[in-house]
Structure formats: C-alpha cells, structure tokens
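User: I'll paste a sequence; please echo it back and then give the predicted structure.

Assistant: Echoing your sequence first, then the prediction.
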Amino acid sequence: MVQKWRIALRKAANLSGWHVENQYESKVIGQIIEEILRKLGPTHLYVGKNIVGMDYHLEQLKALINIELNDVCMIGIYGIGGIGKTTIAKAIYNESSCKFEGSSFLADVREQSKDNAGLLRLQNQLLDDTLAGTYRRKSNIHEATYEISDKLRLKRVLVILDDVDKQRQLDYLAGESEWFGSGSRIIITTRHKNLVALDGANQSYEPRKLNDEDAIKLFSLYAFKQIVPKENYKNLCDNAIKYAQGLPLALAVLGSTLSSKRGIHEWENELRKLEKEPNMEIYHVLRISFDGLSRVEGEIFLDITCFFKGKDRDFVSRILDGAKGEISNLCERCLISVVDNKIHMHDLIQQMGWEIVREKCRNKPWKQSRLWDLDEVSSVLAGNAGTKAIEGLFINMSAQKEIQFTTETFAKMNKLRLLKVHQDAKYDHIMEIDQDVHFPLVALPRDLKLPSFELRYLHWDEYSLKHLPPNFCPMNLIELNMQCSNIEQLWEGNKLLKKLKVINLNHSKHLVEFPSFAMMPNLEILTLEGA
C-alpha cells in the first residue's frame, strides 16, 4: 500500500501546474474548472427506447452540419408534431457535441419562454452550459443577450433550441451568426417552416414519415417487444399502421396502448373506437399547432379539414374570401401541404380538426359549426334540427342513406356560408364519359327556404326546382355550381352580386334565361357546357 502511495505522489509532483503570475486566483480557478469540464465531456441526453430509422436522419443532418467548415451555420429541423424532431435533435447532440468547445441543449423553448423570466432562464442555461460554469448569472434578458453575443463569439459551440415557435425566442437566444465563434452550429426544431428560412446560408431538414417497413418495426417494438407482429395480429397491425400513417408518435402511442389489451377482440374494439374519436395523447400533441393560429387562420383550417382536403388551392382560396395568405401560413406551420396545387393534410391532423369542431357540443351535431359526416347530417336534417350555429354543410347524396328535404330544412341556418349537395366522384367521372347520363332528381318543396345572406359557396348537383327560392339574395356569394339542374331561370328580377366570380350550369338543359352580366361585374368564369 505504501509503495502505491509513493508512486501516486511522484506522479502528482511531476504534473505541470497552472501559473497564476499577475492574474487573479479566481480567474485561474475558473479556467481550471472549464478545462476539467471540457475533458469530462458534455452530458448525454436520453433519446428514448425503440428508436427506428435514426441512422438515416443522422446521415442527412451530418451532411447539413458539415462540421469541417469554419463558418457559423444555422440548421432548422421542422415538421408536424410527433414526427420526431426532438428525438432527432437529441441524437445529433449526443453524436456531435464532443466535437465542440461548448454545447447546450435548450429543451421546450416554447413552453419555457412564455414570459421574460422564462426566457432569461434559458439564456442563463445557454451561458452556463457553454461557458462551463465560469460566468455570473444575469438578472435581465438584455444583459444576458449581450453576454451571449460577447462571450460566445470566440467559442466554437453547438447550440440546440428545441421547439421554437416565435421569432422573439431566436432574437434573444441566437439572434445573429456573429454571436458565435467560427465553426459553431445552431440547430432549432420547430413546427413553423418560416422560422428556419432566415437567410440563404441556413439549412433546413424536414423529417419524413416512416415508410411501411420502419412503421411496422416501431409499432411492433411497442406492441409486442419485437420487430415483427405476431402472426395472428398481422391484419390488425396493418389497420393500426394505416391509421398512424407513418407518424412515429402515433405508432408508439398505439403500440403501447394495444400492448396492454388482452386478445384480438380487445384490439378490434380499441381500433374501432379510433374511427370515431382520436387518441387523446396524440390529439393534444397535434393540437398545439392549432392553438398557435390566429382566429381567422383557425377558421380556415377547420373549413379545409371538414370540406376541402385534396381540393385545388386556388379554388379554396377563392371560396374562403381570398385566403391565400392564410393557406400559406398553414403550410408554414406544417398543418397542411400543397402538392401540384392540391391541398393535402395528414389524416391525424384532419381527425384533430374534426375533434375541435365536435368537442364543445358532443353528441349535439345541430350545434356544430360544420357538418360533413353523413350520420350527423342525416340526424340533423331528418328532424329539421338545423340551427344558426351551422356555417358549413356538405351532403353526399350518392350515399346509401335517403335524405329528404322539407321547406324548413335550412330555414334556421342563418349563418350558412358553405353549402354543397353533391354526388360522389363517380358521378363526375361518368359525366365526363357520357354527358347524356341522368341521375334521379331529389324532389324539393317549391317553397324551400334557403338563407343566403352569408352564403359564399353554393354547389347543388341536380337541383330539381326551376329557380332558386324567391327570398334568395346572396350578397356575398362567390361561386354558384348547379350542374345537371332543372333550372330555367336562376332568379327573378335583378340582383346585384358584386362578389360572384364563378357560375357553373353545365348540363342544365332547361335553362332559358340568364341574369344580366351588368349585375355581376366581377364574374370571371361562366361554364354552360351542355346547357
């Protein structure tokens, strides 16, 4: 034992020390602490279990980060909630932080920066992490902002800002690339695409949903603790994976939920329940994006959710009072996407929107602002239960349920903006092939009441009456679509319709009189094919 002590003391005596010379001892002690912490290496973050597809994400991000370059680079990871942005950011932090002089992972920026006190805590954490405990905590956000820009400009650091949702957070935590030393990398995760488009030097990465192979692996790891489904559960697994549509959060939550169910029967019941209402854990994660919308953006999002998924962007923008800017904002928040000018939306985002419409009037569809589900539509119309709460109503007449219209069907719907009574897509396809095909018209009462002052969009296939109701005065109407109707004359007399842009009366073979164009000065499209 004595010999071991001698050897240890001899080694200690031979270690070179730190020269204080003309410096303050406190400053030298700080340098010693910083060096020790640097050699100990950065803290690793818990990424989670059952990680699937991470190698691909790391490969893509390493190419974007390119740590060999000496410039300061900001990289944005953006996408819908539950796609795996935070998990990917943690993995890249664990993989790369040791290659920098300092590193910091600021979690839950959105939640933690709701006031100045929270933002200050994040600033102090950033300084504490990257300066290895050698600085004095600041008491206000302006001092801390200056300290970040002054103390980190000569340090090569890795900073990750997780779940950013406002420009202000970036302004105070990573406002300029000049704040950081050469070779620094700033990574943000966000649901807002526009926050990562700061300037041409920045890079962005959007994680894609899992492919079927990886989706099966991830779901099976949670449901069965193995990478493949059990043989007799394969069909049910296919249903669950179809429901999740490659969203990692949904696959993990569903797998965990179903793992506790006993037998195929309980699995079937749980999956059947999801057809009617969303899983609340998934719902609350996705809803965060909706809650950040303005009132107008929220209303437009719900209109698209209920009525316009898959429709042409220009058509939807026109119908919703020129909502091109709001549609762009919904794209930037990753709630929708536009491909070939068609609006697309993840099924779970759509289900989240449906739940928002229903949640305040559960089992009372007549109080909903929008009606699209055939069962709910039939229930409301059968009892003439429509109310002024209803702003949008789409009725698919090609479904099996028989729907009858009475004089009072629409009478109380004074706020109705969007009304579509239509056949399904098969109808449109048949009309393209054979214009002489006729479907049986649904008889309408001659004294039909149709509130029209708020009406922006009226689409009624095979409207059976010879004209619209006498009280029809749609001052806000933008598009009128009445294919294959019995219309002889749209309305009697002159009605000044300044907002009307589109009229479609294709195959309305009984049309004999058309309103004066002078009364619709902004009409852009008129189609009378086959009329």
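The mean pLDDT is 89. The longest strand covers residues 157-164.
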